[in-house]
Amino acid sequence: MFGRSTIRGGFRPENLGQNALTLIGNIGFSLFVFGVLIFTIIAATYEPEDPLFHPSDKITTFLTSTSNATLRSDDSVVKTGEDFMVANQTAFAEFINITDVEVTNTNETTSEGEANQLECDVNTPIDCKDQEVFHLMMRATIEKFKDIHFYKFGKPVVGEGVNSCDMAWRYRPKDGKSAAFYKDYRRFVVGKSENCSVSVVGIGEYHSGLNARKRKKNQKAGFEKTGGKKDDFSLPVVGELVNDSLPMVESDSVFKSGKYLVYVGGGDRCKSMNHFLWSFLCALGEAQYLNRTLVMDLTLCLSSIYTSSGQNEEGKDFRFYFDFEHLNEAASVLDEVQFWAKWGKLHKKRRNRLTLHLVEDFRVTPMKLAAVKDTLIMRKFGSVEPDNYWYRVCEGDAESVVKRPWHLLWKSRRLMEIVSAIASRLNWDYDAVHIERGDKARNKELWPNLETDTSPSALLSTLQDKVEEGRHLYIATNEEELSFFNPLKDKYATHFLYDYKDLWDESSEWYSETTKLNGGNPVEFDGYMRASVDTEVFLRGKKQIETFNDLTNDCKDGVGTCNAATS
To answer: CA-CA 20 to 30 A from 309: which of 95, 248, 509, 564?
Structure first.
């Protein structure tokens, strides 16, 4: 009776409002618990997408956010500091127009001019330093190369022979999207008429004016300021002489007073280039946070995904792929071999007290090391992956403190010089298409339409609305049989990376310089270098047509991943 009375009483009119509020509260709390449960499951299973495989705007957003730094293996070309730079259009606006160059009348008929003509000797060598010759050469250059903007001309110097002059200039393509300058230097043939007036007869090929390439005394190569303001930044200058030789180690006294950081061991070696950079820049970021010099290993192990042998290859040099000269100028780094040689020498002398602070747990944060006074902090990593990856140091609390200095790492200017040479041979006036085939085209389960959508007939159909007939078309592709694209030659002037293999063969400047850098041993133009150059030439096309955005509806990472890739 007591139970029934209680239940019946609960539905009395005066109790309905209170019961309704209780019921709503219970439902609300249940929904809250359910939401927490769902969120917990998502958080536990979520893996962030790789930032390095997105356009630079998404990369920048990722790099300024906090998230897990896990990377997946990928053979795509890594983005470096110059890719994150936003081109300062104000700085690039003030280029040299042909109307800015003074016109000199070489056919004067005044009495003074007639007297000069009587005295002229057509056999006299051309004076390359003459202002009239300089102006003629500048005007001829601007008139010939209509698809680039000129920002600086160097004074002409004597070429080869009595009627040739070499001149250098700094420029950018009119439609240039990257924040970089380029340097070219060419040989001019200057003719002299019977009355000794001069004219430009011919302009040589790309980088033919070798005498104008020489760097001025005390001039730093490879850098260009956008002005004189405090917030200016350095820009790559492709075409300058590269000086990536190792700097001299400081004197004993300076070395002893320095503070250093070194990472030893770990599981990062022979991983993808994306993985390497993610870890290396973590180490460099910590060194900068601690105000220490990073002791770095300049030898790399190239992952098998980039090698022709299909095996990991040791003995590669950091300088083959990245601009060490810029890194050394902009950051405090020291070659590992040089460091240990100096350390060993001084350590033998008992009066030289060099102290070492060893850290064997990546969970020891950079903040906890800020007060360390020892000469060297050594982070030693074990053999168990993934806890032995260098980038683990920059996770968690450290991620908001240690910033990866992407702006310090640029691509090798030797590789970018090949890119510039190819674009220059095409007069910077070409369209580009990226056609990905290979393993993806053969995998119908993940990419059911790719092979058909990238067939010659499909390409001709798709491109007819995107590229004008007769245009120069650069094709960046992983298709091994280039004759596959022969049908496109009926409508376009097609170009491929291997059309320019003279730029890295045994007679090339790249081959000569990298061989010298490698102790006299020839360097292979490996898969990563090929992909890097191919991608950069593609990115400099006036029109850029992508495989997965423009040629096929298949998703870049396979069926069902399109929304995830664009979110």
So the answer is: 509
